């Protein structure tokens, strides 16, 4: 009876699971002084795992008949290489490995969504820290996805200057697409284009992963219903959504990689 009385409501349950382990409480919509430490930790963790994954693949590579692990890695590398070759017309010495890194990293971060939604809260409860918020999926945090998107923006600007030269890039900002006589309008349009690419790149990944995480929480709440329908519905809905979510996890990683290649490919081209 006491446990039932202290059980969180549905809204409290969702709010708790969507909260971050932050450096301080956020009171404003935008506050750059706050660091979501759970997002930073799991992003770095997935990055390390991805590097170790590719290192082991390279170390165990053989010239003979490849094993399953080597064949899988070779398939991913070949897929990324083909896409980069088709999109980026120029030196791909850095861009192709970058695209591979983006795909593996984002796929690993997305895959954390397959862990049980109550895993971390259950571990926290064991140590008497049930009030501490902690989110596992870095790509379900807008700060994480926009951070990666800002990195892509930096590379877009770098390659725009490298390929076209500083003078050529500045001239393009003011002259494209309607000619130098509409320089102020062209500059505004190009700034909006860079901003829109960055925001849409980060928001697309965040929106899909956040919605997926929220659906897992709603399915978990369905299982908490003290009825046979709630339990059966939880098992069926959870299984179906988990299987479908495998496609979403890989598809979003692929889309993020493709858009990164497209944006860097556009930086190699003159208007």
What does this structure look like?
By secondary structure, this protein is mostly helical. It is built from 9 helices and no strands. It has helices at residues 2-6, 10-17, 37-59, 68-87, 95-111, 119-126, 142-175, 183-223, 228-267. Helix 3 packs across helix 5, helix 4 (68-87) packs across helix 5 (95-111) and helix 8 (183-223) runs antiparallel to helix 9.
Helix content: over 70%
Structural category: mainly alpha
Mean pLDDT: 86
Extended strand count: 0
Report strand %.
Answer: under 5%
Give the low-pLDDT segments. 1-5
End-to-end separation: 70 Å
Outline: globular
Radius of gyration: 22 Å
Q: Number of DSSP helices?
A: 9
Give the H and E element order: HHHHHHHHH
* Biggest sheet architecture: none
Q: Quick gist of this model?
A:
By secondary structure, the protein is mostly helical. Helix content is 72%, strand content 0%.
What would the keywords be for this entry?
globular; 271 residues; 72% helix; mainly alpha
Topology, element by element:
Blueprint: H1 2-6, H2 10-17, H3 37-59, H4 68-87, H5 95-111, H6 119-126, H7 142-175, H8 183-223, H9 228-267
Helix pairs in contact: 2-8, 3-5, 4-5, 5-9, 7-8, 7-9, 8-9
């Amino acid at each position: 009876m006491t446990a039932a009385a202290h059980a969180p409501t549905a809204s409290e349950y969702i709010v708790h699971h969507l909260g971050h382990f932050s450096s301080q409480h956020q009171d404003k919509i935008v506050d750059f002084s706050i660091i979501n430490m759970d997002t930073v930790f799991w992003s770095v963790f997935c990055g390390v795992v991805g590097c170790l994954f590719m290192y082991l693949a390279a170390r165990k590579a053989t010239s003979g008949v490849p094993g399953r692990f080597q064949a899988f890695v070779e398939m991913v590398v070949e897929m990324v290489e083909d896409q980069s070759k088709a999109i980026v017309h120029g030196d791909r010495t850095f861009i192709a490995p970058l695209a591979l890194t983006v795909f593996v990293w984002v796929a690993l971060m997305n895959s954390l969504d397959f862990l049980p939604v109550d895993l971390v809260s259950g571990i926290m409860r064991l140590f008497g820290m049930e009030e501490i918020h902690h989110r596992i999926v870095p790509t379900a945090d807008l700060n994480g996805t926009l951070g990666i998107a800002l990195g892509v923006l930096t590379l877009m600007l770098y390659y725009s200057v490298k390929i076209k030269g500083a003078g050529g890039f500045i001239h393009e900002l003011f002259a494209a697409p309607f000619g130098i006589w509409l320089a102020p309008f062209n500059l505004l349009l190009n700034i909006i284009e860079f901003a829109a690419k960055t925001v849409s790149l980060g928001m697309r990944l965040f929106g899909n992963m956040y919605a997926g995480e929220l659906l897992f929480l709603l399915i978990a709440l369905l299982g908490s219903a003290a009825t046979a329908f709630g339990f059966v519905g939880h098992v069926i809905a959870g299984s179906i959504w988990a299987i479908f979510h495998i496609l979403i996890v890989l598809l979003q990683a692929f889309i993020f990689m493709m858009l990164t290649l497209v944006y860097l490919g556009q930086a190699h081209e003159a208007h």
